[in-house]
């Protein structure tokens, strides 16, 4: 039986994404074949397509960090899963497909009745947000935080979880997204027309307790200026390495997994040398998952519970068919979306 899969044929723009039809994969021993219902589209996918994300596979590869799907076939030795059960996973690549085979240890059961597009938003974006809030920054009620890219996938997750944690939140975004940020409990700062460092000092006097910075590069140093003495910047992304969804000019071509991360590390090291009692800590979902898989699973179960209790409500920016993956990358690259872009298989 055939299935559809998206492949990146070369490192570059959205035209590198192609739809292929091929035989469905067979699960190996200990693997489960999942029929993908929803696969997330995120900036790390665009960065891998461009060849510079640290997790970029060799071409040709199927992108897609996160998925929710139905258990469809069990490999030898698999137990504890039933056919038709809904599961979630963070394979890091391979989710843009109708079917994917994954080791059973990667799968987390999803409670019945949840919308697959909302559930998939939890896997990359909400775990990132939850672990940064509660494991990296260890926030407490009443603290003040600044969230960059507050209308984006991770940003809206930070706002919803930050509100549950009782935080006072400021969020940078572009002007059309300001109402989304305020609806989720944040005080919007237009990053295109306002200086966020000045604005934070005007609003708080001393600076915030924590900044969540997914922008990267010299922006990390500016974020550091927005925290109070004793505060923390959690640095977790490379958004500034993309311009309109493409590699920044002069940085294109080939698979260069360590270049951007080296630059990131230099800014991080530089920030440790600057005077003042201010800490900058890096966060990486993939490293936390590899080093502490039980913690990853525990946090995803917690978030699925919050979704089931309707205490969180992921914003789904758009749902597009799998075969429109190229268009999805173009849309995400243009910016201006609020929440998570999802590829769906009906
Ligand atoms: N370390 C980890 O484990 C981890 C996990 C997940 C994601 N990430 C990283 O997190 C970042 C965000 O990912 P995402 O999927 O949430 O992306 P997203 O949905 O595209 O959101 C990014 C947001 O950032 C805004 N933005 C762009 N430039 C900005 C600037 N200079 N200042 C403030 N906001 C700005 C965009 O606003 P406009 O569109 O309105 O311009 C957009 O709302 C990416 O760098 C990604 O690689 C890291």
Structure commentary:
- The chain is of the alpha/beta class.
- It folds into two domains: 2-120 and 293-344, Quinone Oxidoreductase, Chain A, domain 1 (Alpha-Beta Complex); 122-287, NAD(P)-binding Rossmann-like Domain (Rossmann fold).
- Helix content is 32%, strand content 27%.
- It is built from ten helices and 17 strands.
- Strands 3, 4, 5, 6, 7, 16 and 17 form a seven-stranded mixed sheet that branches. A six-stranded parallel sheet has the order 10-9-8-11-12-15, sandwiched between helices. A two-stranded antiparallel sheet has the order 1-2.
- Helix 2 packs across helix 3 (153-164), helix 2 (116-136) crosses helix 9 and helix 8 crosses helix 9 (293-308).
Structure, briefly:
This protein has 346 residues and is α/β, with parallel strands linked by helices.
Task: Based on the coordinates given, report the CATH architecture of the largest domain.
Answer: Alpha-Beta Complex
Bound molecules: NADP nicotinamide-adenine-dinucleotide phosphate
Distance between the termini: 17 Å
Sheet of most strands: 7 strands, mixed
CATH class of the largest domain: Alpha Beta
> How many structural units, i.e. domains?
2
> What general outline do the C-alpha atoms trace?
globular
Question: pLDDT under 50 segments (min length 5)?
Answer: none
Give the topology string: H per helix, E per strand: EEEHEEEEHEHEHEHEHEEEHEHHEHE
Please tally the β strands and state the result.
Answer: 17
Question: Which bin fits the share of residues in helices?
Answer: 25-40%
CATH topology of the largest domain: Quinone Oxidoreductase, Chain A, domain 1
């Amino acid at each position: 039986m055939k299935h559809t899969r998206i492949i990146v044929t070369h490192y570059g723009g959205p035209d590198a994404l192609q739809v292929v039809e091929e035989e469905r994969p067979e699960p190996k021993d200990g693997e489960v074949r999942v029929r993908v219902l929803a696969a997330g589209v995120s900036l790390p996918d665009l960065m891998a397509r461009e060849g510079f994300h640290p997790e970029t596979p060799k071409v040709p590869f199927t992108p897609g960090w996160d998925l929710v799907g139905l258990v469809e076939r069990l490999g030898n030795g698999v137990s504890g899963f039933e056919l038709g059960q809904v599961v979630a996973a963070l394979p890091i690549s391979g989710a843009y497909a109708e079917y994917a085979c994954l080791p059973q240890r990667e799968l987390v059961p999803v409670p019945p009745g949840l919308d697959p597009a909302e559930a998939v938003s939890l896997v990359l974006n909400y775990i990132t947000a939850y672990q940064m809030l509660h494991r990296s920054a260890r926030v407490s009620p009443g603290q003040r935080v600044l969230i960059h890219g507050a209308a984006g996938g991770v940003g809206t997750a930070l706002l919803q979880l930050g509100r549950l944690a009782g935080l006072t939140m400021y969020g940078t975004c572009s002007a059309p997204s300001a109402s989304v940020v305020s609806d989720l409990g944040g005080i919007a700062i237009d990053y295109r027309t306002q200086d966020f460092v000045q604005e934070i000092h005007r609003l708080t006097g001393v600076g915030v307790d924590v900044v969540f910075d997914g922008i990267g590069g010299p922006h990390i140093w500016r974020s550091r200026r927005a925290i109070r003495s004793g505060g923390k910047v959690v640095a977790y992304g490379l958004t500034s390495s993309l311009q309109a969804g493409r590699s920044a000019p002069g940085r294109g071509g080939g698979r260069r997994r360590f270049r951007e991360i080296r630059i990131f590390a230099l800014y991080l090291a530089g920030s440790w040398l600057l005077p003042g009692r201010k800490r900058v800590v890096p966060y990486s979902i993939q490293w936390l998952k590899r080093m502490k898989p039980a913690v990853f699973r525990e946090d995803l179960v917690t978030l699925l519970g919050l979704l089931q209790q309707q205490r969180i409500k992921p914003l789904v920016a758009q749902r597009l068919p799998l075969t429109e993956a190229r268009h999805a990358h173009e849309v995400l690259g243009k910016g201006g979306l609020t929440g998570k872009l999802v590829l769906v298989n009906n």
